[in-house]
Amino acid sequence: MRRAVSWLVAVLALAAWSPSTPARAEDGLDPVTSIPLPKMYGPTSLVAASQDVVVRAVWTASRKYEYEYSLDNGAGWKPAPQSVASFSLIGYRGLFYRMKLDDVVDGGEDCDSAKAGGFVIWDPVKGTTRTVDVTPEQGAVVIECPGIADAVANRVVLADGRVLDLSGSTARSLPVVFGEGAPENTRAIGISADGTTVLGRGSVWDAKKQAERQFLAVASTDGTTGRPAMEIPGLIGSAVAADRMHYLVGTKSKLAICRAPLADPTKPSCLTLRKGDSRNVDATLDVSQGVDEVIYRARHTTLWLRKGNTVKKVTTTATIRALLGTAFRDPSRPLVYGEHAAKGDVYGRVAPNGKVDWSIVSRKVPAYLASLAVTPNRVTAIDSRPFVDASPSPLWYRTFSGTTVGAEIRLAGPVDNSWRVYASGRRTVVDCCTSLKTGYYDDAKRVFDQRQKANANGLSGPYVATGDYVRRFDGVTYRTVRNPAIFGSLVATIPDLGRTITVRDLAKPSSTPITVTLPAGPEYWSTDLLMWGDWIGLTYFGGPDHDQVTALVRNYRTGESHTISGQVKALGDGYALIARYQPSHTEDDDVRTAYVWKYRTGQSQVLPVQSGYELATDGVGQLAWATETTIEVAKIQGVATTAPRLLGVLAPSSFKAGTTWKPAIDTSKPLNAGTLEIRTSKGKLVRSVATQATASGSLRKATWNGRDAKGRKVAAGTYTWTLRASARDGSGTVTDVTGRAAATGTVKVKR
Questions:
Q1: How far is CA 440 from the centre of its chain?
Q2: Based on the structure, what is the number of domains in the chain?
Q3: Average pLDDT, the chain
Q4: Which one, 59, 179, 302, 378, has the greatest CB density within 10 A?
């Protein structure tokens, strides 16, 4: 029984298939509980800035960036025009430049490649945009890591070094000829404020020294041959501001920053930033032309502000965790980025004295869910809020009953938003990876951590499925075949590429396993094996070419089977959740559609869940899914009709009469108040212990003190307990995990 389903990774590698049209269910799926998502400062990136105009991108719960701009240094914000909504935006003297891209090829972890498709020039103060076309020759050139490297006065330097004039309706290529000594790979990286001069950078391999020799070169945009190139030993970074070139060098003795007029680059003015061997220093150079100021940084450590022939370290408040860079060419003040312990991404302007005013704070947006689980009376989630409780992301749950929702209850970290969460009754497991510990929780109490040999992939009562093991909440471990499916103490396994499923009861190791042999021919996915009560579910490849994806559910006791096209992602009492995958013919991601399938009636229904959003079920007819702003909880009608079953009991096997025996009991459904009957080995009733109603299916407050109904200590021996309680939904009295006997167990009393 797996409790949570993520459609972010639901169907990553499905082959083509021809699905049959599912029958639509007559009943609706209206949410009965709506839980607002927690708010956070949205992860924010400043995209560009010029003078008092700032453009930013805010990551929202819709899994996309929203682009905004401010005309007053971040005091107020407006949505940016769609035509300039891009990270490839350069600002200068109030104008912003963007290159449109054609024939984009995803480079994976490397750079994309594309062709120039024209340009957009935006004036945010006037609220106007102008488009500039490219010639066929300009548009035919494939650019790796495409974008604009620099822009001034309707002239742009592209990432591949080409320089274009955008003053007309069609771009005009400007000739750049670097001078003597410039390596063949030299290309323009920056342009002067008047657009007449470019700075180029190139390198050659020195076989003798087994190192790159770095060169800077200056050339005009009118086609005349530029000055001889200059070799710059230890060159780290270079840039252009106004009519000057700036470069950062790291040598055996120091880290230094130099600048020189583009008109006479042979006479630099250099200042030492730090002494000592800086040949391998992790540093970068960024320039900001505002008020003749330039910012340099050593990555993640120190940031310097240069004005004229003086240099100052930039000072920040203690709440800033890291300085990660500068902003852009000509803001009214240089801009820097920091990480705030509570507000996340923050930006500020650097004053002439080197102090930072962190005035640009992101707006609050709903957090997006990284993982979601639901039980009969609570939702549990990991969300994207940063920097809380010394954890990258918070883990929490909220109880609910109808429209009434409880407060957020935090579970102690550490947790990351790449981890998964599973829930069953009051129990929670949060799982990371094989190198870190998995946290086990009972309510908000962290029971223990256990280093896993594989990722957890299911939780049912006190049992956790992980890799080729099943682990109990008390640390007891059972070795199984890889990728076990669990329902309480029942575990189902199938070998890789096999077709024989074995079901056994971990709580009764001497019991005879049940085996189910599936039809020969299809390729069965052991990773998709699921279990609920008497039913197992899995996915297989079928058809003449093994390219048809089919979901199968089967009663392992009776042999009753049902199939539907798609991939089974979760199994519940009388239903399954099915994922279907369709390649997208647009720029959007491939579409993953979720269905609830009532396999015994053949009805199926499309779920109102956007592709990429979290979806979970508790196995007893309740669904929870995330929207951009809420978690919605709804009931599936006509399912979950079987009586509740005992999933597991954690309790001491013996205790001393007069002390307290306290079992932790987990069942598949919420229960009414009932009794825990205690009987002797001969069946004589010695005590009836009242049990409270439970909205989760988990009983924690039933205790027995080893005394009979008259308060006398019972004799030493083995006693049988039986849970007598009915389901709150009227489906019957709780049974054992098989559904064929009473919910019972034994405990030994000592004197």
A1: 21
A2: 2
A3: 88
A4: 378
